[in-house]
Structures are given as structure tokens and as C-alpha cells.
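User: quick one, fold this
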Amino acid sequence: MKGIILAGGSGTRLYPLTRVTNKHLLPVYDRPMIYFPIQALKRAGLKDILIVSGRGHVGHFLELLGSGKGLGVNLSYEVQEKPGGIAQALGLAKDFADDGKIAVVLGDNIFEHNLKPAIAKFKKQKDGAMIFLTRVENPRSYGVAEIKNGRVVSIEEKPKKPKSNLAVAGIYFYDSRVFDIIKTLKPSSRGELEITDVNNFYIQQGLMRREILRGWWGDCGENFDNLLTVAQRVAKSKKL
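Assistant:
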């Protein structure tokens, strides 16, 4: 099983900090943001990791991280030529995945939860996908899961009337079918291929599992307040 970190996007919600650099290179307390998803995958036992970034920034990642040897991992890189959504960026990892299962982490998500037990469980699954849910105070800002009888029955992106307070965190496990599913997607109203559509496909096929994140989770790319809050939590954390 291999790891994939999606670190593209223009980071407009963090302007002017991101005017000349990728948001995933911004500091979060004592480390660049990109270190955290790398370390999360490494803790889970995944050392072959692909970083997908946009044009103009991939060289910055390479300069900072190199081969990944200094962090104890093996890094590869892929370039998303233009913004096209999370699912479109994931589609660039097809060759890297080599028909195997993958763990995908959004590069601006920082969390305490150890993914190792979930990865062991997912490896035993014949096929399908797994998402990670976390309770939030502002579900309207996220993709929100509807749960019935303990199973996810739908995910709605930024709903006006959320059906739960369980947000879908930026952590996803997929089997190799995900790349075929991405090929069938049509752009949303934002002109992007949405990861929510990928997840809903697996749900409709009855192939989606879910885990609840333990410990705190933060989306550093949402706004300046989140970036500050996560940095303060990292400063106090003994797990990261």
C-alpha cells in the first residue's frame, strides 16, 4: 500500500502568505506544513509516498524534501498542470499506485489519529474505500456524512442544512478502482472533479467503510484562524 499527499491548489484563502509560495510550505509551529502528512503516513508504516503539487511549486518541494531520505521515506513527485479539483489531482497518481491500494491525505490536514490500525483493517478488505469522519462545530463548511444504522449513506458538500455534524476529513483509502471512477466524473459547478463524487460512488455500491478520528484534527487551509489554532495545538502536542 502506498501513500499519496495532495498538495496543489492556489491557497487563496491564505493570501498574501501564499502569493509567492504553496500553502503546504507555510510553517505550522516548528515545521513546514507538508511535514505533517508525510510523518502521519510514515507512522502508519507507509514509506513510498507521492506528492502531487501544482506548477511553479513542485521545485520548492523538491528543494525542501529531496528524495525523502532525511525524513525516512521514499518520495516521488507529480505535477498538476492546472487546478482541476482533488479528484483530478488524485488521478495523476495512477501509475504510482501500480494497481494497489492507496492512502490519500490532503496536505493541509493535520491530525493526531494514528492511521496504522485502519490501514491494517483496510488491507484485509477485498475492495472498496474508507473515509475518516470527525465532529465539527461548523459542518456547513465541509463535506458532511449522513449515517444510518452505523453506515454512511451519503455525503453532501457544504450543505445548508447538514444531516449530521460529522465532517469528512481529508484522509481517504481507496482500492485501484478509484482511477476508473475518476475517469467517469464530470466537472462540478466549480469546474472541478470533486472527491465527494468519488466517495458517493463507493457509497452507492455499498463499498464504503468509515472510521471516526480520535484526537484533534485541523484544516490549515481553511482560514488564518485555523492555521493559528493548529499551530498552537502542535506546540502542545506530544504525539506529533
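User: anything notable?
Assistant: The mean pLDDT is 94.
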